[in-house]
Specification:
Its main location: cytoplasm. With 347 residues, the chain is α+β, with helices and mostly antiparallel strands. It contains 11 helices and 13 strands. It has 3 domains: 19-111, Rossmann fold; 120-137 and 206-339, ATP-grasp fold, B domain (D-amino Acid Aminotransferase, Chain A, domain 1, 2-Layer Sandwich), CATH 3.30.470.20; 141-203, Dna Ligase, domain 1 (2-Layer Sandwich). Helix 1 (45-55) links the parallel strand 1 (19-25) and strand 2. Helix 1 packs across helix 11 (326-340).
Length: 347
């Protein structure tokens, strides 16, 4: 089966022909920089191969396509029916939109959310602003730029400081909490210099922490039971930081299903579905929440391009807790995208 001139499938698609799947990704290169988590968002080749192995079968042929500046040329030279996208992009506030935008330009279907949703979700402040209009409860926040002079104004403490457009806890260190104006000024100034972008300063919600996985589309959306992140060492401020994620086996444990009041879980699941729908997410996403002292869930952030590293990333971990193994999860994501795009393949 060949793609037409625009890259789309012909009308006579044979459901029993071999499906050609491209996997787009960005790899960790091991480049040393002053920032230890510079490549936090990128994947190892082991993750790419795990996805490849999960998808490979008699009806499926896999093409590996690193998402560098040669990707458009590679897509022209190697026709595929659909792309399994895990690429984080190369640079900028809209980096996660780079590959989906190229794929849409070539009229090639792909897994996951489109470029608009990915841009909106990566900009944490903009995402919170949109969701607040739908009455989604979220911590109070403010964005600081390098030219901002509001650091001397009143602000509620404690607060957490993090890059406004990053994921994978990039830029969230073990000392990201400010308890006074001087600490806030230091954290904001140092982090803007280190990461070259605006900083989100957010009210610290001092309560239990959860992440929720969403899988599917439309009326077939499934929300996994919330997975709790439980800190083994009780600190004054427990943060799911980059360092904690790197050493998670020693510092935290995961509980799913969690010991959560049914009414609170119901609200959290309802919020997750609503957020997924409002942001026009596709196929899969992961959404983070914290409870305040009254047990009310607060939306922290959403990742519509969650990591899929087996044995490490939260999304496959919570799916496994809920009875879905890695291969089934990866294939489910692809099936969701195939069905959403009206592609009649069987895998």
């Amino acid at each position: 089966m060949e793609n037409d001139a625009n890259g789309s499938l012909g009308d006579e698609a044979d459901p029993y022909s071999k499906l050609r799947v491209g996997i787009t990704y960005n790899l960790k290169k091991g480049i040393r920089t002053e920032v230890i988590d510079a490549e936090a968002e990128y994947d190892s080749i082991d993750t790419v191969l795990a996805i490849k192995n999960a998808l490979e079968c008699d009806n499926c042929h896999i093409e590996l396509m690193e998402a560098d500046t040669d990707l458009p040329k590679r897509l022209k030279e190697t026709p595929v029916d659909i792309v399994f996208n895990i690429a984080e992009g190369l640079k900028g506030r809209g980096r996660e939109a780079e590959v989906p935008a190229v794929l849409n330009m070539f009229n090639i279907p792909f897994t996951g959310s489109d470029e608009t949703t990915l841009c909106l979700a990566l900009d944490k402040a903009l995402c919170k602003r949109v969701l607040s209009t739908y009455r989604i409860r979220t911590p109070k926040y403010r964005v600081f730029t390098k030219d901002d002079n509001r650091l001397n104004t009143n602000f509620s403490f404690p607060c957490i400081v993090k890059p406004n457009a990053e994921g994978s806890s990039k830029g969230i260190s073990d000392i990201c909490i400010a308890t006074n104006k001087e600490e806030l000024k230091t954290l904001v100034t140092d982090n803007i210099k280190a990461y070259g972008q605006d900083m989100l300063v957010e009210e610290y919600i001092d309560g239990r922490e959860f992440t929720v996985g969403v899988l599917g589309n439309g009326d077939d959306v499934h929300v996994f039971s919330p997975m709790e992140i439980i800190y083994l060492k009780k600190n004054k401020f427990n943060i799911y930081s980059f360092n904690v994620k790197q050493d998670y086996k020693k510092l935290i444990r995961y509980e799913c299903p969690s010991k959560l009041d049914p009414d609170i879980e119901e609200e959290m699941v309802f919020m997750a579905k609503k957020i997924f729908k409002v942001l026009s997410c596709h196929d899969f996403s992961r959404i983070d929440f914290r409870l305040n002292s009254e047990g009310k869930p607060y939306f922290i952030e959403i990742n519509p391009l969650p990591g899929l590293a087996p044995g490490y990333s939260d999304f496959p971990m919570l799916a496994e807790f809920c009875g879905m193994d890695y291969v089934t999860l990866v294939r489910s994501i692809l099936r969701n995208a195939l069905h959403r795009n009206g592609l009649p393949f069987q895998i």
